[in-house]
Amino acid sequence: MGSEQSEARRELFLGVDGGGTKTSCYLGALDENLSLCVLGRGLSSGSNPNTVGMDKAVAAILESVERAQQDAGIIGQFCCRGLFAVAGTLNMDVRRELAARLSEGGIAAKCDVVPDLYPLLETGSKDSAAVGLIAGTGSVGIGRNAAGEIALAGGWGPLVGDDGSGFALGKDAIRHAFNQLEQGAAADRLTEVVCQQLGASTATEIRAKLAAAADQRSLIAQLAKVVVSEAVEGDRSASSIISKGVFYLTELVKHLRTRLKLGEAPLTINVSGGLFQQSDYYCGRLKEMLGEAGVACQIHLLDDPTFICLTIAARADFDGEIRLLP
């Protein structure tokens, strides 16, 4: 009986990472040693209110929470706090509306909604300076100074930006292959692997593959992995493409450091996205180029943003507001 009472009194927390295609929820609690434990996990569909609408976003988040509760064997038990990092919530009014709707859902006493980039600023304190970088299909940077001011850099999308992303690396690889094939030159190694990846052997066939693709951006971004692999093997063309991408990410960090007046102190940089997760190579090149630019830093791979959300919720030092510079 005493154990059951202890379980009932245990404070529960929610961490949710909501994107365009999926929503992940962790239900957790502190154990007797004050270590954070994940009790249950839940997945559901995308919850970006800009793409699926507010009603479906709320429904997806609530579904992920319900599935985490089911996984933990804790149905309907009220949580103390929840931290919801959701794509499409840069606008403060959207964040506040979503937070209100989630509170109405009765899942936690306090529901805080932040943009999905926010976990990249995790350092153990909500007020310490940090920089975050995402290099996946797209790219974006975020930074925070000791005053709690937050700024964004990049994230402009594939038409005008996303340099340093998987899409940008893949696009440069295709451009390289086109140049080789259209000039009638003997295909070099990078051109060969691009053609193999696309199932094509001529410039005309590559054009046909691109035209027929249901998701052209994803198709191109998938080529990034062969660019990285070939660069690791020492291919000069692939290495040049990598250098171009890393240079852009370095510039994002420099811009954030200047905008937020971070000074010359070593930076904590959290990175996420497929290019960083694929291998240590891209991250290593980034650290090398940052060093050459005079930016001292420690780089950490953030591979589980849902757990970071849970950590922030359990720490309870976040007031629910973020100061995003225009």
Automatic annotation (TrEMBL):
InterPro entries: ATPase_BadF (IPR002731), ATPase_NBD (IPR043129), Euk-type_GlcNAc_Kinase (IPR052519). Pfam families: BcrAD_BadFG. It comes from the Bacteria. This is ATPase BadF/BadG/BcrA/BcrD type domain-containing protein. The lineage of its organism: Bacteria, Pseudomonadati, Planctomycetota, Planctomycetia, Pirellulales. Residues 14-292 form the ATPase BadF/BadG/BcrA/BcrD type domain. SUPFAM superfamilies: Actin-like ATPase domain.
